Model the fold of this input.
Amino acid sequence: MYNETLEWIENALDSLHETGKMGSLHWRATYTEEDHKALKLLERWMREKNLEVFYDDIGNLFGKIEGEQDKIVLTGSHRDTVKNGGKYDGALGIICAIAAAGALYEEFGKPKKSVEVVAFCEEEGSRFLSGYLGSRYFVGQLSDDILLERDANGITLTEAIRHAGFSGKRAQKSLQMQKVERFIELHIEQGGVLEQSGEQVGLVTSIVGLLIGKITIDGHQNHAGTTPMHLRKDPVTRAAQFITEMNQWAMAYNEAVTCTFGEIQVFPNKSNVIPGSVSLSFDIRSTSPAILQEARMRIKNLQQQEDGFRYTLEFAAPNAPAQMDEDGLKLLEEAAKKLHLSYRKMHSGAGHDAEMVAQNIKTNMIFVPSVGGISHSPLEYSKMDDIGHGYLLLKEFLREIAWGHEEEKA
Ligand code: HGY
Ligand code: MN
Ligand code: MN
Done:
């Protein structure tokens, strides 16, 4: 039975990955043709496992097993990927949740509490700046500003939601959310700690907070050959200077902060033209709100400088650092011991829907090792043995909470 389940998970991962193939590139952004193909597959698998399929008003997909009580245990992850991403980020948590919920229903019948598997939309923010859209919506934090964010083609989030056939209506703190007792997300670690330490699974204790956004620097476009160096206002050299300053700032904090400028666009991007403007993304992470605030001020200070450049700043909606639920962590520890799985309590340097949901709901995460610690890359890979351990732990957690005697402390 277990081996069949692992085979099902492996095949599902391959099939879901296929939906994101765009020629030589892989990218499954939300409200796209690729996303639609993935949703049809996920709906089919949910129905095959006796889950009742439904969507909320912005297109989060749910598969439900009705319980005796009107309470919900939520599990799942995000269905979108980064551009040129891997097979496991997000997809693994949804597929293992469908498999676990389906297996438990087959083995134990109707649960005490309903179980819902969710495939959240646009967690990566690879199409719309703020990202974590599905989980933000779920906890009533999808703001008007976010709905007006535009993708690279100038389409607003609202337009994309409507075009995909959803109303985008926002039920603040949706009724469904108020019934949710717990959220558990299985995810790849996306780092190398587990692989180096040798534990089989990771039990997440906290998730990093994020400060993300975009800076556009306007300078003076001019001729690359006839403009003396001291007369230039070249935004690329100004951007390079700022990136270097911010990297030195981050290095001084050692492991407490990460700082990445992953997306840089130069205009007009021609070798014999001193650029007119440059736009660069920033992605700064820390569990310390003070460090994130300091980074925000450093970026804002750009606009105070009288240096002949024009700075335009865009800040994505905030992602506060999140603490995982202590009781859930204890339950995961007990379950790991019962399953004879070695485990490590650990922090997550990656952002997750779990950090959004944790703002309102008791939340926990399980990590499985990433080979070489690689993620957000076509080289992302996790071994089926390791995936199986994560699956068994997720299944035992769900059994305890939704089917078992584990009564929630008020
Ligand atoms: O960026 C992250 O950490 C997540 O994958 N969205
Ligand atoms: Mn990711
Ligand atoms: Mn992810």
